[in-house]
Amino acid sequence: MEWIDAATAAERLGVKPATLYAYVSRGLLTRRHGDDRRSLFEAGEIERLARRGRPRGQPPELVVESGVTALGLDRPYYRGRDALGLARTAGFEAVAEWLWSGDPSVLSVVPPDGSSPDGVPVQAVWQCEPEALRATVQAQRGLPADLSPLDRLQVITTVLGASDSLRHQLDPVSVAATGRRLIAGLVDALPPAANPPASDPPASGPLTAGPPGGGPGEGRVAERLWARLCPRPATPALLAALDAALVLLADHELAASTLAARVAASARADPYAVVLTGLGVLGGPLHGGASYGAERLLAEVTEPERAARVIADRVRRGERIPGFGHSVYKNGDARGDLLLTLVQEAAPGHDRLAAAQAVLGEVRRRRLPERNVDFALAALTAVAGMVPGAGEAIFAVARTAGWLAHAMEEYEKGSLLRLRASYTGPPPERAPVHPAAT
Length: 438
Hints:
Oligomer: single chain
Strand order of the largest sheet: 1-3-2
Number of strands: 6
Order of helices and strands: EHHEEHEEEHHHHHHHHHHHHHHHH
């Protein structure tokens, strides 16, 4: 059996590589990965398809050419770089800059702590304008105290956009600068996590901007986000796990929220509107909201012995097991493996990890799909003691980097991303014929 690479297969079929992969997703072609992780196609199958001609009579499939992220067998690659490797060697800010620019120097110059060897910061400034930050804090004063972080992020994005007079500058450098201000604002405008005394209503104190003990914009994004989501101080190892989670979740090709964000960007919507579009889709339980479902699952497993009952009840009700299975990674999500390993190394023997392991064991006993990154994210938030819904917020802050990278591609193309429907309704009425005017 002869195997050929994607370029050769696409040339034989007379299609673009993106169309080739669309044939794979529709079950028209099979592929395997070589030792160098390149996609390989069986030459005989390609030849038979070439003789039959292009597939007809099937609903059209949207194919978008992109240079941002490629999906491998069990992990994503950001502009060709293994996301798992980046999670271990680069901080979130550096990876965001890489997604936006493709400039290798942002990865080789900036270590995970954001400083050069002599301690001098070398990163671009990740700060929100003080006036915009104050406006976002003011806008949240009337919100319920128990509102989820993801819901707050949608309010924050709206106010930040309305406050930014540069939001319509759509060249790559300007969009990257907007991205730094926007991500900083998303994090710093969240109210600090705290455990108020039982006698004090949660909403009695004023909302403040900036990390506790410092001014707005101080520290790395992971440090600042930790202070917004967790009332406990971060250990270095758990903080590193959070930073790795941000990297692992920064992009994932054309996920549902990213497709929506690209459509918005193709219509020349400004970066804030693009991110707001992505946030609206992200919260769905089949997307970023799955991390909240996994959080609730772990919360039900108060003791490892309860894992079997909790899983059995969900199976009996015909429910999905949140945090397990993936539409792309059929044999396991390597992002989840790495993140869970980092959490285990950061908090060995933690009781929430024991509960997570019990759930994993029960799921495997039932031969259900493997865990994904949502389950590992839920384990991180449980071990850290973060507020409910923290996983969604981590997901949203991280994916903002990817949304803007995809938006830059659409801004450069300058054409509207217009899908067509495959109509299945009743036949359209015949247009009335009007007699000619006399």
